[in-house]
Amino acid sequence: MSLALAAPAAAAPVQPFTETTACDSGRVCMWEDPFKAGNRYVHSTQTTFEIPGWDGDNEISSVWNRTGQKLTIFDNDGYTGTRICLNAGEYVAELGPERAFDNEAESYKLANNCL
Ligand SMILES: [Ca+2]
Ligand SMILES: [Ca+2]
Ligand SMILES: [Ca+2]
Description:
By secondary structure, the protein is mainly beta. It has strands at residues 28-33, 37-44, 48-50, 62-65, 70-76, 80-86, 91-92, 107-111. The chain has one domain: Gamma-B Crystallin, domain 1 (Sandwich). A 4-stranded antiparallel beta sheet has the order 2-1-4-7, with no helix packed on it. Strands 3-8-5-6 form a 4-stranded antiparallel beta sheet, with no helix packed on it. A hairpin with a 3-residue loop joins strand 5 (70-76) and strand 6. The chain is globular, with a radius of gyration of 17 Å. The site of one calcium ion has 7 residues, from loops.
């Protein structure tokens, strides 16, 4: 053990990326659980995005589209399958059961219209 480890804790612990509920302007954010809870698997500025297979696919339960475009979310990889569409700035706290899209999302695209 190094003495440095016992030094006064001057630096605050870094907030793990996975525990944040923040979503910066201009980004698409997706969480594992409803109401921005659980892991924040997506925090992206990309207009087309393949949600990672092990960290996001079929797990997303809440979404915030903080971009100025429509957000189309696809049930399958490669922008295929059933889809739902969010307006610019729209936040969906629960993808299920009303939207019937809980734990379904696997990829998304941003565009001027719903795809
Ligand atoms: Ca995917
Ligand atoms: Ca989930
Ligand atoms: Ca799916």
